[in-house]
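Our consortium's second objective concerns turning raw sequence data into structural hypotheses that experimental partners can test. To show how far this objective has progressed, the report includes one record in full. It was chosen at random from the queue rather than selected for favorable results. The single chain below, 341 residues long, was entered without modification.
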Amino acid sequence: MGYTGGMRIRGRIERFFFESKVLRDNPLGDPANREVIVYLPPGYDESRARLPLILMLPGYAGSPSGIVSYDPFRKNTIEDLDAQIVQGEAPPFILALPDCMTRFGGSQFIDSIAHGAYQSYLADEVIPEIDARFRTVQAAEGRAIVGRSSGGFGALRMALDRPGVVSAIASHAGDALFEVTMRPMFTGAAVAMARAGGVEAFARKLLEEGPKDGLDFDGAFTLAAAQSYSPNLEAPPPHVDLPVDLETGVIRQDVFERWLAHDPVRRIEKQSEALRSLRFAYLDAGDGDEHGLNFGARALKRGLEAAGVEVEYEEFPGGHRGTSWRYRLSLPLVAQKLRNA
């Protein structure tokens, strides 16, 4: 049995860095040299067969290293997956965890003038780099993308914005239905930013100290999401228009409309043609999700099914956090939908 980073797995993990062209000179000055963590299943080295590829995207403020971190008391996602493949509960595939972090905690995995071109990085650089290094099925029919929370949003947007890149997705409580799930967060964000002295002061404080409480976390996420959804390079750093007025706490509807234009629920209605190449979507959320993302998942299910996509949907007892165990259900299902060599 292989021993990797404290994990006991039959497969193995490889890590590599490469220099991104699209992230070079990004507005935040974040590194362009990025790590990709790759899990190779048992038997990869003995076989010459090509295997499907699944990209996994973490939630806001999460990192690929966190997904593979060792815990002596419970299995992590990779250990779970490795055991499922060994036991024949999941077909073998290659799992890749790319780094799309920004200094404000996340990129939402899309392109933005305020933080850089992270969707292009994934579609145009990460996937070709993995295809060149490993024996992958080099076609959309052999690729999928999965994620939780912001990562689920990134998976949905990849399917919508880049048809022909992947043919299956999984979104675990992915950000959607912004009127319900995002809008309540803006009040806490306004409190946190106002008490810090404004968005610029809050951004400086965040970089120096990190979020100190729930209000700060609301502010941090709102700031990072604003860099994705409502960037404004003419505004002072961090170059965003906020969807909430810090003086009154009232929603700035003109800015919020820019956010809503990024909502996967709305985009499915307008981009249904883009979903022709999407064969399968796994959606779920906890029935007690603190952000109401179970409502978002229900809306996504209706939209995807109306667009002709096969959807597997579940609402389970639980909340928004601590749901990495859901990959035990989604990864085997998604992998079964992908084409082998």
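The partners drew two points from this record. The mean pLDDT is 96. Residues 2-177+264-336 form a domain with the Rossmann fold fold (CATH 3.40.50.1820). Both points have been shared with the crystallography group to help prioritize constructs.
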